[in-house]
Specification:
By secondary structure, the chain is an all-alpha fold. The chain is built from 11 helices and no strands. Helix 6 packs antiparallel against helix 7 and helix 10 runs antiparallel to helix 11. The chain is elongated and about 100 Å long.
């Protein structure tokens, strides 16, 4: 009987030990998961020396690290606030790293777990940098325009600032069309301007788009733009000439 009792006592003692240790260990693990991540890269100004001349490889490695961290934090439902730091590191080494400009707005404002007004403004700055680095890139201009007109705009709380962003986005989208983006975007941009009371600006924009959609392959959008022009002219009245649009951000 004694020989049979000993294993039972050992089992009960082990179970009691686990029950006693589990709560504090769980609390410790939870606290560890909530701690800020350790950002291991040196300051941007020191990165050139740290890469030892392997700039392209370093940039690809940092970009891959950013993607992994972004996805891991989403999977673990943890805050991730280092996107801007990784972006600054990449752009310090390679200011014309195009993949970053294509996705930085999403990664900034739709980060784990929730973006902020500050993130939206930071994303806008990065996109502006992209249009400076790639002034003739229609896709980047369109990304920039759509973000400030729609995505980033939803994070703002001041109606005047929201309207200013919508107008800025409309101008950027119109410029994207001039660079080769889908002509339909000209109609979107004109709608944004006209809703904001910028009817003459919308008309000016559409008349330019109408001029470069005369090719037979674009007959449908050309006719749609023409109909919208006539509607805006009726709203504006014959006495008001279209005002010139502001020069897109450079």
């Amino acid at each position: 009987m004694k020989d049979g009792l000993a294993p039972v006592l050992v089992f009960l003692a082990a179970a009691a030990g686990v029950a006693w240790l589990q709560p504090p260990l769980a609390r410790a693990a939870h606290k560890a998961g909530e701690r800020d991540d350790v950002y291991s890269l040196p300051p941007p100004g020191q990165l050139h020396a740290a890469t030892l001349g392997y700039d392209a490889a370093a940039v690809d490695g940092i970009w891959a690290k950013l993607l992994v961290e972004y996805g891991t934090h989403w999977a673990e439902h943890r805050e991730f606030e280092d996107t801007g730091r990784y972006a600054d590191a990449i752009l310090e080494i390679e200011p014309n790293y195009r993949p970053l400009y294509r996705y930085i707005d999403t990664m900034m404002v739709y980060r784990p777990m929730q973006g902020t007004i500050a993130d939206a403004r930071a994303a806008r700055r990065y996109l502006q940098m992209g249009t400076r680095e790639f002034p003739d890139d229609a896709a980047l201009w369109l990304e920039y325009g759509q973000f400030v007109a729609y995505g980033g705009n939803t994070f703002l709380t001041d109606p005047a600032e929201q309207e200013a962003w919508r107008k800025e986005g409309a101008v950027a989208m119109e410029h994207a069309v001039e660079l080769g983006a889908a002509p339909e975007r000209a109609l979107t941009a004109a709608t944004l301007l006209s809703k904001g009371g910028q009817i003459a600006g919308a008309l000016n924009q559409l008349e330019r788009a109408y001029a470069f959609t005369e090719h037979p392959s674009m007959v449908e959008v050309h006719d749609a733009i023409g109909r919208r022009i006539e509607m805006l002219r009726q709203q504006l009245g014959p006495s008001q000439a279209p005002e010139p649009l502001p020069v897109p951000f450079r």
